[in-house]
Automatic annotation (TrEMBL):
HAMAP family: THF_DHG_CYH. Residues 145-291 form the Tetrahydrofolate dehydrogenase/cyclohydrolase NAD(P)-binding domain. GO terms for biological process: L-histidine biosynthetic process; methionine biosynthetic process; purine nucleotide biosynthetic process; tetrahydrofolate interconversion. GO terms for molecular function: methenyltetrahydrofolate cyclohydrolase activity; methylenetetrahydrofolate dehydrogenase (NADP+) activity. Belongs to the tetrahydrofolate dehydrogenase/cyclohydrolase family. Its EC number is 1.5.1.5, 3.5.4.9. PANTHER family: C-1-TETRAHYDROFOLATE SYNTHASE, CYTOPLASMIC, C-1-TETRAHYDROFOLATE SYNTHASE, CYTOPLASMIC-RELATED. PROSITE patterns: THF_DHG_CYH_1, THF_DHG_CYH_2. It comes from the Bacteria. This is Bifunctional protein FolD.
Amino acid sequence: MNTPIETQLIDGKAFAERMTQKVTEEVAELQKTTGITPGLAVILVGNDPASEVYVRNKTKQTHKVGMRSFMHLLPETTTQQELLSLIQRLNNDPDIHGILVQLPLPKHLVADPIIQAIRPEKDVDGLTAYNAGKLALGHMDGFIPCTPLGCLLLLQQEVPNLRGLNALVIGASNLMGKPMAQLLLNQGCTVTIAHIDTRNTAELAKQADIIIVATGCRELVKGSWIKKGAIIIDVGINRIISDDKKIKLVGDVAFQEALGIASKITPVPGGVGPITISCLLHNTLCATKKHLSI
Ligand SMILES: NC(=O)C1=CN([C@@H]2O[C@H](COP(=O)(O)OP(=O)(O)OC[C@H]3O[C@@H](n4cnc5c(N)ncnc54)[C@H](OP(=O)(O)O)[C@@H]3O)[C@@H](O)[C@H]2O)C=CC1
Ligand SMILES: Nc1nc(=O)c2c([nH]1)NC[C@@H]1CN(c3ccc(C(=O)N[C@@H](CCC(=O)O)C(=O)O)cc3)C=[N+]21
Ligand SMILES: [Mg+2]
C-alpha cells in the first residue's frame, strides 16, 4: 500500500520558454506594424530577497523579448507620497504600458492605496479592485495576477479537465492565494483555502488532488500531508544558506519527502518562477495592445 510511486518533475522553465517565444514573436510583429515597443515599469522599495530574484530575472527576460524595462530601485526610506507621485507619473507616461510594484513593501508604507493608484489599464499584476473584481466575476479579459495565471496554465497542461477535483490553496494573499482560488473555482475545482489561522491544514491537504502552496514558509507541506498521486504546485521562494555555505532557493514543500508520494511536483527553482515572468511579459503585451485598441 505504501509502495512509492514515480514522481514527475514539472519543467516550468521549458513551459516558460515556449510562452516567452510566442511573446517575442508578437512583440516583433507589433513593432513592425505600429512602431510601438511595449514598456514595463517596475518599482522595488528596499530589499526583499524574493523580490530581488524576481527583479533580476525579469529585467533580463524583458530585454530578451524586445520590450523596454524601466526599473525604479528606491531606498527603504521612500515615503508614501513619493511612491504615489511616481505612480502618477508612470500612469501618465505614454512609453509605459505596464506598472508593477514589488510586494511586500517596507512596513512603514501602506500597500493598498499605492496599488489602487495604478491605472487599471496598466495594472499588469492584476491587483487593482477593477481587475480583481473582473476575475471574481469569472471574466478572463482583465489582468490576472501572473503567478496564479501561470499555475493555472501549467495545471491545464498536466490535467486537461480540472472539473470536480479537490484543490487546496495554502496562503491567501491578494497576489497569489485569492486569485488562484478564483481561477480554480472558475475551472470547476472544489476549492479550499488554508491560511495562517487554519487549524487542520494537514487534514485538508490529505483530501486534495491538487495542492498549491504560497506562504513563504519553508518545508511547510510535509510528505505525510500529501495524498498519494496528488499534484503539487510549489510557489514559495525562500532563500537559505545550504550546508556547503551557498545561497540556495527552496520552496514551501519538503521536496524530498514529496518524492514517491506526489504524482507531479514543480521544483524550486525551475518551476513556477520562470512562468510568472512569462505571464508578466504576456500581460504587458496585452496592455500595449489594449492601449492601441488591437
Ligand atoms: N514563484 C513565484 O513566481 C512567486 C513566488 N512568491 C512567493 O510565494 C510566497 C507567498 O507570496 P505572497 O502570497 O505574496 O506572500 P504573503 O506574505 O503576502 O502571503 C502569504 C500568505 O500565506 C499565509 N501563511 C503564512 N504562513 C502560513 C502557514 N504557516 N500556514 C498557512 N498559511 C500561511 C499568510 O497568512 P497571513 O496573511 O494571515 O499571515 C498569507 O495569506 C513567498 O515565498 C513569495 O516569495 C510569490 C509570488 C510569485
Ligand atoms: N507585485 C509583485 N508581483 C509578483 O509577482 C511578485 C512580487 N510582487 N514580489 C516577489 C514575488 C516573488 N516573485 C518571483 C518571480 C519569479 C521568480 C523567479 O524567477 N524564480 C526563478 C529563480 C531562478 C534563480 O535565479 O535562481 C525560479 O524559481 O526558477 C522568483 C520570484 C514574484 N513576486
Ligand atoms: Mg504579500
